[in-house]
Amino acid sequence: MVKSPLLPLALAALGAASLAAAVVPGRAAADPATQGHQHAPGQLVSVVASSPNATTAHLTAWQRVRGHWVRVLGPVTAYVGTDGIGQASESTSHTPAGVWTLTEAFGIQPDNGTRLPYRQVTTSDWWVSDVRSPYYNTHYRCAPGTCPFDESAGEDLGEAGPVYNHATVIDYNRHPAVPGRGSAFFLHVSAGKPTAGCVAIPSDDLDAVMRWLDPARHPVIDIRVA
């Protein structure tokens, strides 16, 4: 694989304390309201685009070894939102910029060997994007036509096709979920084109990343512009 000039080489020498100070579970930068709830991450997935409007980026997986970040997978080309990387919302197709935890996974297909908690989904599994719903930006299970939210403002995970054969949830805007700030952001299988805001890579690469992710090492994803 060709080495990308966009690799975040500074991470190779970044100490654990430096990243831990900026990472809050489910959030982007250090937030005084959540101090004391931080975990020092031992795994990092970096997604780095060349400009805010770029619809592709380089995804690389890093593992902390004796206080330094060592590349273990990638870089691979990833598709991001059609509006690039920036401030996400329900009215844009931005991929959210920031550092977010990776705590759970799902897919239409059976578990691919990930160590994250995994849910195999059907057409009764939804991700709620109804800004008026108390279930906004959460998973909810209900048969189509019976859900307690606007189904047109939600995503039927089982109907999405191969892009959701396997996926990892990006914990943007989840704890708490702020209505309108964006929902349903995943690392999923690429369809070979920009996304509505998710990060997408080829299936084999996704399987490798998902099998590598270890919840005991508090993995995070860092989405940014070089």
How would you sum up this structure, described in words?
With 226 residues, this protein is mainly β. It has one domain (9-225). It has 2 helices and 15 strands. The strands form 4 sheets. A 5-stranded mixed sheet has the order 3-2-1-15-6, with helices on one face. 42% of the residues are buried.
- pLDDT averaged over residues: 87
The major β-sheet equals:
5 strands, mixed
In percent terms, what proportion of residues is strand? 25-35%
Q: Structural class of the helix and strand makeup?
A: mainly beta
What's the domain count? 1
- Rg over alpha carbons: 17 Å
Outline: globular
What is the topology, as strand order, of the major beta sheet?
Answer: 3-2-1-15-6
The H/E string reads: HEEEEEEEEEEEEEEHE
Pfam families: YkuD
Organism: Amycolatopsis samaneae
Protein name: L,D-transpeptidase
Keywords: Signal
Short synopsis of the structure:
By secondary structure, the protein is mainly β. Helix content is 7%, strand content 31%. The chain has helices spanning 16-20, 203-212, and strands at residues 43-49, 56-65, 68-79, 85-86, 95-96, 98-101, 105-107, 118-120, 125-128, 139-141, 154-156, 167-169, 186-189, 199-201, 220-225.
Layout of SSEs?
Elements: H1 16-20, E1 43-49, E2 56-65, E3 68-79, E4 85-86, E5 95-96, E6 98-101, E7 105-107, E8 118-120, E9 125-128, E10 139-141, E11 154-156, E12 167-169, E13 186-189, E14 199-201, H2 203-212, E15 220-225
Parallel strand pairs: 1-15, 4-5, 7-8, 13-14
Antiparallel strand pairs: 1-2, 2-3, 6-15, 7-12, 9-10, 9-11, 12-13
Pfam families: YkuD (PF03734)
Signal peptide: 1-22
Domain L,D-TPase catalytic: 82-220
